[in-house]
Sequence to fold (640 residues):
Amino acid sequence: MMELLEVKNLSKHYKNFDLKDISFTLPKGYIMGYVGANGSGKTTTLNLITGVLKCVEGDVRIDGLSREKGEQAYKEKIGYVGDESYFPDHFKIKHIRNVIKDFYPTFSEDKFNGFIRNWNLPENKLIKDFSRGMKVMLMFASVLARDTKLLVLDEATNGLDPVMRTEILKLLQEYVMDGERSVIFSTHILSDLEQIADYIYFIHRGRTILYDAKDELIENFLLVKGESAKIPPALKKELIGLEEKTYGFEAILPSDKAELLGNAFLFEKPTIDQIVIHYIKSREEQ
Amino acid sequence: MKIIISNQSELPIYAQIREQLKEQILNGQIPEGETLPSIRQLAKEVGVSVITTTRAYSELEAEGFIATMQGKGSVVLPTDNNLLREQYLLRIEEGLSTAIETAKTMGMSKDELTDIFHNLLET
Amino acid sequence: MRALHFMKIDYMLTRKQMYFMPAILVLAWVVGTGVSKGAMSLLVTCSYVAFVASIFSTAPFGYCVRKNRGFLLLLPATVKERVAGRFLYGLSFVGLLGIFCGILWGVYAMMGYELPLWTVALGLCELAVGILIMALEFLFFYLFGEGKENWQQLSNIVRIAPGMAMFFGMTYFVGKIEEIQGTTAGGMGIDPEVLSGKFMQVGVIAILAALLLTAVAAAVCVKVIENRDYA
Fold:
């Protein structure tokens, strides 16, 4: 059993939004970045995975187990960190410790207290008076202090300072270190998180756009720049998300079409962000 | 052992790791018999993805620089002279090809180019 | 077991109101003695306590608006356990206040007040109505309000009105008791004493019925929520 997370044909219909046919697998010990613009369906997907939203169409398995087969065991495998605190506002750290101890048999109080100390989280403040960074770190403490298989992070590092983001990157890499546990994180900005992601799944308006190992993605595309007037029709057909500006154009080209370029254009290794931007552009034009 | 990743480099990250490790193995900074950090350890230290370091290691293995043994990690192999020679040859060829490419672009003749080559050898 | 853990969460969520509960109980006693004396004052006090119970037993709903609920939804437990925990909180809260009333009756008895059996029975009915109001409020909150913000006013009416009606009803009844008993001119001449045995049965049956209806309400809530998008 090498796959930790299997998502098959996951769909969800709302009045003005559809999530359609999301399918991927995430092997044990790897990190996936779930990328898309705001409102593209990232949170919906992650909520379906954690079981907070009901999965009506499609199938989600964690470590081979579906939620229908065993709600409790399924949820115990998941550690979730959201974009804002999901703890009751009027709780203090001691109340959270109390609840986690009651509900999760693998919870280690020592570990939890260690995180609280290391990150200087205030024991006697109400959660609602925590800073944003403190809230995020408390969520991390509460999930890392117990035995989970899958970390699900929904925009968890948004608005955190660079020092904290680096700390979280290290935490995530440590988490997958033993090769048994995996991480899926959603984000609309890639930046530093991009570095540690093994796989990228990219959705736009509820539809899958790209899904591959990150290194492959970067190698499979070239960022092309040059003079718009010089683009031959054969090349224009292949360019993705062609953006024409006053003094030149920018677009993405599949690497295997590189021979169409000749000497007239500048091309370089794209970042994931650049691939994403041009792909969104090409979708919007359709 | 040191690895420095540049985001500006045209080389993909796995290739940067591969080249830097190769360099250090060839010049003896990483001695033969030394165990390299595990793929996951290295990924964490350098702050890159596991797939990236896996690829760097497997290419080093394919080129005969390291051997990965189940449960023991990756060990640096003795760099026998042929391998060393081959690597250096490769690098010389690469350097010369770049020079020739550039010469062609500006339309330099064969003789002019060889003159430069000989002049440089003398200095 | 996990239902009990959810009940514990509700007590932690509402811990603040527990601090001032003793003061409220004293107030209930003062209100009772202000209206009447002896057994009659106890009836008023108990209706006031039931009023208080019906208001404060719904407090956990107020602490569980959209964003703050995530943690509870993620806990490894079923909808059934979560809803059962909430109802156990409601029952135990009303029960605790009921015990307070019971103790008060005991103290009055020891102090030598005359406490006719029918007043005790009426007290039990008040407890039953208290439980029933709590169950109906829970049903209402689960069906229409769980997790929703910005509906404060409606929810306040739902929380306060039924208990208040019972309190004023009982106060009115106690004020009219002499008229009903016929000890004053033009009274109806009904002597509740004669019916005491029946009253007691009614009291016990009322409580059992209230508990049964609470269970039904809880079951309905579970069914409805299980079919909801947000589990």
